[in-house]
Amino acid sequence: MPHRIFEHDGASRFRLEPLSRTNEVASGISARVHDPAWALARQWQFGEFAGQDAGSPVLARIEGHSTLVSAWRPTVSDDPALVASWVPYDPAAGPLDAVVESEDGTVPDEYLRVEGGARFVRLVHEAGQSAKLPQVLAEYRFDPVSDGTTSLVALLAPRVPDARALAEDLAGGGLRVSGLADVGERWLDWWRGVAPPETPGTDAFDPHRFEYRSDFSFGDRVLHAEEYLGDGLDWYSVDVDPSATPAPAAPVRNFTQEVVPSTVRFGGIPADSFWEMEDAQINLGATDVSSLDTGRLLLISFAEVYGNDWFLFPLEVPVGSITTLDSIVVTDSFNGTHTVERAGRGDPRWNLFTITGSDDGLLMMPSGRGAVGESLESVALARDELANLAWAIEKTVTLAGELVDRRERWLRIAPEGPPHNDIGSYAVQTVVPDYWLPLVPHALSAQAIRFALVPLLQPGAESKPRGRLLRPDHWVHEEEVPREGALVVRRPVLARWFDGSWHVWVRREKNPGGGESSSGLHFDVVRPSETWP
Fold first, then answer.
1. Which of left, alpha, beta for 128 (phi over 0: left; psi -120 to 50: alpha)?
2. pTM exceeding 0.70
3. 204 vs 214: CA distance, rounded Å
């Protein structure tokens, strides 16, 4: 490799220039080894010749069985005598989330009832039956809840019928106005696709913990969800309850399939070809690993040394089932057969993707999370150490179909403070915003405390819950209001099932809060006329 010397301003610069001795590249890319004996000796020293005469898998035969879910029930009550009876469930009818998360006796809000009434009026006009609208409005008059605000519900209520009353009559036999049977049938099909189902008596939501609790029957096993937060049912949401009695067993589906395995591919895997340029986005060789970082060392060793020894194959299982593989027999390229045992069969502590309490089985919950809409209501739970209280803060509620920010409303109606006084003023207590609802600790025993929602008496402000998450006589377990707080919201959900059907419901979610808070509540307050020194 020759070099050239350049002089510039008294300084010498060197540049190396590669010079090829021939006009061909075959010798370079062949990567010839000048001492093959040394290379073979090094391979022998590292044990690279101690291999196995094993072929690649070309066919896998799988035998197993799937146990379908047959029923579910809410388990909100801790009293065994009050445990609800099993409710039959068919995965083909819709996602399990829709029946578990739906509110008890959910009724459409005023906004949806007005929207449904407006659609019924439009269908009546299209059918040429406009002359019967006055009679329809007289029979199904809409009486909205008056909240002192001008909203879309208040504007349209006198001009449209109540959609909920229409749906009740159509589902029960027919309208009280003759000649609109065809219109009612078309409208009812639309209404069932957008209105939440009214399912009284099946609410699995625990209002004292703001969590869902329910059981699911899979054959001879009962899976229990103790603290489901409303964020989508999955295999990690449930555990096996050995003490519960399952519902009548569902049929077990046995299956036998033959599939073709394929090589596992992942980012950073070594390239198959010698001259193939590897992707540099994941460079395992550049990982900063110390000698004590066993986890990373094992990961890199698996990826670099055994990355080409893993294969996968597809297996289609029924939705809403626990699938157990009885046997996997792999045929290799030499026509040899190998039986694959379950990993960790001899060690019950080694477990992946298996529900607690079960030694085997893959759970596929019939879950359809769908599209989640904007919150209909939000309540923050926070502790206030200065006031020695906990608070349920109603941030937003839905009134007459409109989302109301209670803080903004309070700023408009908050009472004014005392007038300026040169000698100062005295107040028994400060005024707390009306959307801050006190949770007072009540000692049930020496080891049990719960927070009870009590009214806050103060001049010029009436503190009471206006949404659906809280009630005037509400109480909450102490452990459900931790130091970091909690945020509970109501959201509408729209999901599409595998058969193309649409399902609508309102779910309640519980999320971590924003820490402790202060309401500014003080007693025996003296406001001086000037700042204290």
1. left
2. yes
3. 6
